[in-house]
Amino acid sequence: MTLENQPEPEATPGVVVVRVVAAGICGSDLTAFTGRMGISLPGQIRGHEFSGVVISSTPENADWVGVPVAVNPLLSCNTCRACRRGDDNQCAEQVSIGIQRPGGFAELAAVPVTNLVALTPNVDFVAAATAEPLADAIHAVRLGLSSGPAEQALVIGAGSIGTLLIASARLLGVTDIVVLDPDTRRHDAAISAGGTTIFDNRDDVNGYFATNPLGGADLVFDVVGTPGTRHDAVQWTNRGGTTVMVGLHEDTADLSWRDIIRREITLKGSSASNRNDFRTAADWLNNGLIELPAWRADTLENAPAIFTTMTNGSRPSSLEKVMLMPAPN
Ligand SMILES: [Zn+2]
Ligand SMILES: [Zn+2]
User: Fold this and answer.
1) Separation of 101 CA from ligand 2 center, angstroms?
2) Which SS3 state, helix, strand or coil, does residue 91 take?
3) Strand runs (DSSP E) across the chain, as ranges?
4) One domain for residues 77 and 153
5) What was the pLDDT predicted at 317?
6) How far apart are CA 309 and CA 206, in angstroms?
7) Neighbours of ion ligand 2 (CB under 5 A)
């Protein structure tokens, strides 16, 4: 990863130029950087979680100039069956700003007006840059609740997505949220997001659900994605409940299909988010409904060193989300 001067993006019909104020480093940026997983293209400007201010446009979009915005990074065809039913994250043509197109780890980024969400003038740009991961969390909760209401949810993994997922479940009406994360440094954030019972090891979760007549939670989210957490997620889903798989740590896992069938468990995968989820996320953040996960600001200049440090070692040395904040020019 290097810092380079590149030609400035230009506004074209339907596309404006955004001056980036805050751009979050996502776990998927790190796995792409190490080449371990994810889409990694040589020379790509990454950064798909960002906010900023529109600074130039062609005449028909002049109203956008000066407007603070959250950027929805997903670009889709808008005409296929998935797009027409609102599942633009399942469009076969779908690409993402900051993954396959130049993104927000830059001072300026070109963004289609259809991917902008206007924010109030006093917006917190770091909060706005959290709209994309929050939308992913909202998407997972909505998928989970689409098969029926849930009184109790279990969230396995309380990193930044897990914490946003806890907050989204609470705002979408789940009152009892059990959380499992072995890293106790994450527990305070899980509680303030809305976690009601927090565990740091799986044996205690087994004991907890052993006393529950249904044997598990109505709704279980695996935000980790190892064979072990996927297996546990199914085991801790109660009869007729729903398991939502979010984490992508491994490609495959053995599951107890006997349990899935006998206990009539609904299994769902959740990937990214659709336009509606993104609008909800931007709306919640704009209205201060979400407490942000811990974060720290850093510069574009430091990005190469930050990526190297963050991908050294198996466990993150810091739990803070890094927000790259390009200096105003
Ligand atoms: Zn992301
Ligand atoms: Zn489409």
Assistant:
1) 17
2) coil
3) 15-24, 50-56, 68-71, 74-75, 95-96, 108-112, 116-118, 152-156, 176-180, 197-199, 217-222, 237-245, 266-269, 295-298, 321-324
4) no
5) 60
6) 36
7) 76-77, 80, 83, 91
CA gap 99, 193 in Å, rounded: 29
| Secondary-structure percent of the chain, ordered helix, strand, coil, rounded to 5 | 35, 25, 45
Distance 272 CA to ligand 1 centre (A): 8
Residue 68's CATH number: 3.90.180.10
Nearest to 15 by CA among 66, 57, 67, 69: 57
Q: Two tokens at 155?
A: 């969230």
Residue 69 lies in a domain: yes
pLDDT digits (tens, 9 = 90+) for 5-49: 999 999 999 999 999 999 999 988 998 898 877 778 888 999 999
pTM beyond 0.85: the answer is yes
Q: CA end-to-end span of the chain, whole Å?
A: 22
Domain residues for the domain of 212 are 134-269
The bound ligand whose nearest atom lies closest to the alpha carbon of 80 is: 2
Which pLDDT value is given to residue 115?
97
Helix (H, G, I), strand (E, B) or coil at 7: coil
Distance 48 CA to ligand 1 centre (A): 6
